[in-house]
Amino acid sequence: MNECPVTNEVANQIPPTAGESEYASYMRTDMLLSLQRPDDELLHRDERLFQCVHQSTELWLKQAVFEIEHAITLIHDARPMAAAQILGRATDCIDLITGQLKLLSKMSSFDFGALRPALGKGSGLESPGWSSLRRAAPRLHAAFLAQCGASRSDLQEIFRSGHDQPLYVLAEALIDLDGKVSVWRLEHLFVAVRTIGTGGIGTKGMPVQTLANMLNHRLFPELWEARAALAGAYA
């Protein structure tokens, strides 16, 4: 019988320090909760909210990329159904960070202006989480297309094949992930417009209009086009 993976994990667990619970030790809560500005250094109380939303976003993006990397491995191992299930986790991670944007939308423009100097020239364009996801997406796409080639099926054949076909389920999982990223972009644009206006300039000097231009970007454009072509809506 295989040894339970938890056994080694527990054996290697860092023992709690005096007065610290095992939960706090394992979750590194002392370190985690020290990553926000101290109360007496906040330029505005909403700076805490701003940091928490963005820091947790990076955590969920890290997890999303972790799941995507595993999905790529599963696809290479010819396990499309398992890969689709794992991609569902990555999609849920994107859902979570999209929901968090509602918290930022409740911040007033005046209050954002008060905390904005703390950001300097920092920008979400520098997000390591989004950068990692953008790097992983082409490899996910390539792995999927390789499986299509191995099965000698083109994309339209796959989208015609039906809901019980593994490659169809996987293709839909890729589109679900891509779609949720697009929804995040849209919600992020709404927050930016609500906060600094349609003609506003972000902290990195990027006009808000640039965010609007990204709404038509797709991670997997071939899949969207092949799927849509089957609707017969084009002249």
Automatic annotation (TrEMBL):
Pfam family, one: Trp_dioxygenase
Domain of life, per lineage: Bacteria
Transmembrane segments: none
Name of the protein in its database record: Tryptophan 2,3-dioxygenase family protein
